[in-house]
Amino acid sequence: MVGRLLDGRYQIRARIARGGMATVYLATDLRLERRVAVKVMHAHLADDAAFRDRFIQEARSAARLAHPNVVNVFDQGQDLGTAYLVMEYLQGITLRDLLGEYGRLTPEQTMDILEAVLAGLVAAHKAGIIHRDLKPENVLLADDGRIKLGDFGLARAATSSTASGQALLGTIAYLSPELVTRGIADTRSDVYAVGIMMYEMLTGEQPFKGEQPVQIAYQHANDSVPAPSLKNPGVPALLDDLTLWATARDPEDRPRDARAMLDQLFETQHLMHDAAPANRTATQRTAVLPSAASTRVLATADLAPSAPRRAQSADVVDRLRAATARAHRRGAWAFAAVLVAGSLAAGTGWYYGGGPGSTAVVPSVTGKSQDAANAALIGRGFRIGPADQAYSSRNEGVVTATRPSAGALLPPGATVSLVLSKGERPASVPSVKGRTVAAATAAVTAARLVVAGRIDRASTRAAGTVLRLVDDEGATIAPGTTLDAGTAVHLLVSTGPADAAAPTTSTDPAQ
Questions:
Q1: H-helix or E-strand spanning residue 97
Q2: Is 133 annotated as catalytic?
Q3: Which of 145, 263, 372, 382 has the greatest number of CB atoms lying within 10 Å of its CB?
Q4: Catalytic residue among 48, 53, 133, 484
Q5: Which domains does the chain have, with CATH numbers?
Q6: H or E element at residue 181
Q7: Strand 415-421 relative to strand 399-403: parallel, antiparallel, unpaired?
Q8: Edge-to-edge strand order for the sheet containing 82-88?
């Protein structure tokens, strides 16, 4: 591909990166005489007309999204069967590079990057675009300090069946429970991915690990993300609460979109900002974005209602310029010189003291009994509203969330309602007809069911193809059937034509 001229306009110069679904090249736009990044779909995906058409459609949607924190899409097309996307070229590193270089980040650094990511995502959600592949690899930190969100559209076009196992593993660490179990996504799925990135920035690790994608998927679907402070005691409670809110397993318990999460981030910054020493120097104070801005989707007033800081690309540039340059040279990161120099311990104590003046913060009571949670809320001066119930992996009657969520700033005497667990959500039987044993096992596991074994039976289908799921008696279990989570099922597997050996059974689904 290097040296090729696409559509008589884009001269491919060098390969920048290769992923499971596409390769990115540095190219020269000969018409406008500028450097661009060209993303070229892998040939085996470009041959799929449905995938290619969806890729092009999503590229057009992304091209209509103009925001300082989003990578600009300039063009898309096909040349001799090669589907490609042309984007602005940013010289710098990714958030993944930065985490690999420095491990975990400080709370201040995390909030700076998080703010820029959410600002770009706000514009996307307002435009009706769901990213669906948010991860550190798609957060770009330019050498000039700009922070931009990339890869809009491509993730929407991709499916797990078309991605390689390696690419899936790189992405599944940030997939929301509803994407894992039901394959559906909305703005709250993006919020979940941002929450996972937030956890990783604060701790230097992903919350869920596994050698196989299905192991990670199972944890997303069944386990709650732990508080970052359990891994890094230096994380303040305010950021714990924001992370846990964003990564709630039930979408109903998360911020409804990037706008809601960004608003809460501003409030968190406000609390931590006001808790810092009052005698900071001018260089330690946070800059404010000028009201005038270049091309963008949201007006300044719409992007953020009144809050103590509005750091978009303009002032993030200044704070990250030194950091991104030093990252290339394996030097020390210099965020501290331009960030608020405050005592997080003092800020946390002030926070738990009740907040500014006549406001109080809803505490996190997840995992407590109803009585203990009520006592904690009453102790903060809140009234207790009628409790709701929701499915959860927690024991029945245990608190899974509050409404409003933990971290919300309310006047004393405001009403807070508990959400109590009513036990595990019943599992819905997936369709496994025509799949391989490995793929069917993964689907069943992700649905929170257990493959107890396999039954081999002659059929017209190719040997090794799963025919359906059956129970212990051999009766068919139809897709969509509701079962208790953890119910054992068996795979009915074809042995090929009828002249094959007589049916056998096995307790090992992998055979």
A1: helix 95-102
A2: yes
A3: 382
A4: 133
A5: 5-88 (3.30.200.20), 92-346 (1.10.510.10), 357-421 (3.30.10.20), 427-506 (3.30.10.20)
A6: helix 177-182
A7: antiparallel
A8: 5-6, 10-18, 22-29, 34-41, 82-88, 73-79
